[in-house]
Amino acid sequence: MNTLRKVCCLQLITGIVCFTCSFFFSASYAQTPANHSSADIYLQLKQLKVLGTVLYIAAHPDDENNYLLPYLAKEKMYRTAYMSLTRGEGGQNLIGSEQGVELGLIRTQELLAARRMDGAEQYFSRAYEFGYSKSANEALHIWDREKVLSDIVWMIRKLQPDIIITRFPADARAGHGHHWASAILANEAFRAAADSTRFPEQFALLGRNARPWQAKRILWNTFNFGNINTTANDQLRIEVGAYNPLLGESYGELGAEARSMHKSQGEGRPRRKGKIYEFFATTGGDAPRNDRNDLMDGIVTDWTRVKGGEQVQDTIDHIIHAYQFTAPAASVPALVQLYRQIAGLHVPPEQEIWKKKKMAEVQELVTACAGLSVEATTQQETALQGDSIRVNLLVNKRNEVNASLVKFFVDYSITADTVLQQPLETNQNYAYTTIIVPKLNPKSTQPYWLEKDRTKEGMFEVADDALIGKAWNDPSLHALVQ
Q: Is the pTM here over 0.85, yes or no?
């Protein structure tokens, strides 16, 4: 039986026509689409100016540093990602009886909930958490060392991080064998990702802009856990507990909320105020100068790293200066012009990643500033192959911008296509319905890493290499609005 996911699994791709410029906006909503306050929008505008990426790597759900991730994502405004090598299948479960792969599904969603709070992205390798491991050698033997290494290299080449951070050291001080192995593999991947002879099959999957990637440095985020203190005065020290008045909380408070999403492990934490110091030791690449207190020391993280970017930087500065907290819609015309400006940049292939990323961010900002709400839902929980499905669309443009709803359809491959040409009045609900008969993939509702049986105890088998790293499946159906 082929099933359609529940309503929350529809992907909604929204679009508006503003000031004679037509967009398709893309976003996946596994929950109710987020509403953005004026302060949220202002932070996103400031993030447009930052072109820097950090990849944090550890072994399990709950290994990430929940104070550091929101500091990197929301204070420094870097693109920040956490890669957990496993999904936590071998751990404890304090909220139910699920174990093994079922527990891994729960912990995956807990990590995604934490990332929605701290602003970071979430990725995984194919490694299976088989339980407690006494040493890195044991972990690397039960896992497939080369495959897990390949997964980390894949994410490095895909994200192109400027710096990589490990939670644990590549020695016995890491304690758990998975922790130890995660640091060994991360440091090896730091070098392998820059070597065109390592895993060359990845370049075809990454597309025309694929190339080896050398991060500037890899650092170990040292710690003081229990009786083990690995911090030292000669290490780089960063204060990450700052208070953000636009968020109304410190990163210690925000990080505690994110940490509390690890409910199956009883990881509820009090909201922490005050200074929080994190320490870092360089394990590869160029070390940052300790007196500068900057993880990105020596790395260009503004628009000057992109060909023609100086003018873009000036445009963003003007938009931020003119931003009206009580009238965010006033920024829409300038954001549309900024989108065109970025789209018109002729950048070399290695800079395409930033061009596409910033264009997507501008699209999201136009939607937020316009107060555009678009929801596509169905009341049918499941569907058999050949069943018809009623999809309901609700649109509301809540701010004063010139916008029209042109068309609404579900997936390019499905013939249902509603041409509307409807000018949108402010704060007026517009409801539409279309009937579709989707052609569902037989495995469309199965988590991609569970489609095939494991042939090795410590590894999942993934049929499509392009899916490796993803936290969850893409939705079965996509509603598109222009």
A: yes
